[in-house]
Amino acid sequence: MNPESEVYASENGEPGSLNDNFNGDVSERRENSKGPHEAVHHDRSKFSDILQLKNGSFADLPASKISEMMKPNSLENASTQSLFSVVNKILDESIERKNGDIPQRVASLLKLVVQEIEQRVAKHAENFRKQSNLYKSREERYQSRLRAFETLTTGTTEEVEIVMKQLQQIKLEKMRIDEKRKVEEQDVIRLTRQKDHYETEISLLKQELDLAKKAYEKNCSELETQAMETKAELENKLKERQLLLNDSRKKVKELEAFSESKFLKWRRKEHNYKHFIDSHVGSLQELRAVSESIKKEVLKTKKMYREEINHFGWELKGLVDAAHSYHAVLAENRKLYNEVQDLKGNIRVYCRIRPFLPGQSEKQTTIEYIGENGELVVMNPLKQGKDNHRLFKFNKVFGPAATQEEVFLDTQPLIRSVLDGYNVCIFAYGQTGSGKTYTMSGPSVSSVEDWGVNYRALNDLFHISQSRKSSITYEIGVQMVEIYNEQVRDLLCNGSSQKRYPFPPNEFGA
Ligand SMILES: Nc1ncnc2c1ncn2[C@@H]1O[C@H](COP(=O)(O)OP(=O)(O)OP(=O)(O)O)[C@@H](O)[C@H]1O
């Protein structure tokens, strides 16, 4: 038995009232004493009988009864309640008696009963003490256990947290499993319904199958009878067919003989056709070769035609370009013609003033004024009065800063009119060192910037003739002459044998 069960047993039994305890002791002794149950009952009934004597007294009891009651067995088996009742009754009787004397035998009984009660009280006290010690030891045990539990509790807080988390996860898992289980339950319900449905379908199909089976069996029997009939018919027909087959065999033999003769005839015809086809294949090959050569000829002719057409196309394009250029030239000529007509006469006179040459910077210029419209005022310090200044009028005056290109641009339209058949003459006039060569040829041929009117004019004419070559072919010739002291000299003639002019009229006028 464990301590807890011991405590509960003790609490329920031993710490009760005195009477209960005494009753317990009595029952315990009763069980331990191996005497007959009837004897115990007899001892107890003795005390009960005595106590039920309400009108009688102990003093009046016979000595034999009292000595029986005083026996150790009788006292030990009596209940504590009975013992206290005996004591009280004896004491009450002694009080009621006037002389107060108690008979010797009653006093002896009283003493024995009191001793019995004392023993029981002592035993009871001893039990209480033992119980108390037991409770104390158990309390100490519980205290130590409590402390151990407290230590365990503080030590296992972290574990408890982990366990709580695991528990949480397990709960979640459980919820998931529950949901899954619900779904599965629904599936089970669905499947059960389906199963029911299929079962009803199966039962229906079974019924149909039974019906079909019966119908089939019926059909089978009908067919069997029909088959028998048909068999008989077929046997008859077979006989008829057998006869027909014999006839047919005879006919086949006749036809075979006929086809054999036909085959020989067709064979001969095939041979004739083959010979005919072979002869025609030869002539066909010849025709093919002729056709190939004709095809090549046709392709060659086609190519030639294509090239000629291309050539015509180019020529046509040239004509179109020429027509376009011709229109442009016509427009330009018209413009030039108008310009020339606007001029007063066909002669233009330009004046170019050259800058001072190196080393002449200290000299004073005689040019007073250069006008926009060709006016030039020249001062003559040697003359006085009115003659001091003289005004000259030109088509245009080029100042010392004018470039070669600016000078050329004014003469360019006139030069271009040469290409349309007009006669043009550019004539440079001036005293020695005034800049005629510089203007007409330029200081240097290597630099295009320095080119004078002659080079620029020829360059321009070559460009135009090149652009118009599809429509017009020009022949360009150059003459360069110098008139000095009324002597004309050919400047393009090499060496000392320079040709002297006047030339014959046909040469000079070209
Ligand atoms: N516009 C100009 N700018 C700079 N230098 C010029 C100009 N015109 C002429 N000169 C210079 O003046 C000098 C004389 O010029 P150029 O030889 O052309 O004169 P010219 O009239 O031909 O002389 P000549 O009649 O003796 O042959 C040259 O050194 C030339 O470089």
TrEMBL record:
The keyword Nucleotide-binding applies. Residues 181-251 form a coiled coil. Residues 346-510 form the Kinesin motor domain. GO terms for molecular function: ATP binding; cytoskeletal motor activity. Transmembrane segments: none annotated. It comes from the Eukaryota. Residues 26-46 have a biased composition (Basic and acidic residues). PANTHER family: KINESIN-LIKE PROTEIN KIN-14J, KINESIN-LIKE PROTEIN KLP-3. This is Kinesin motor domain-containing protein. It comes from Cinchona calisaya.
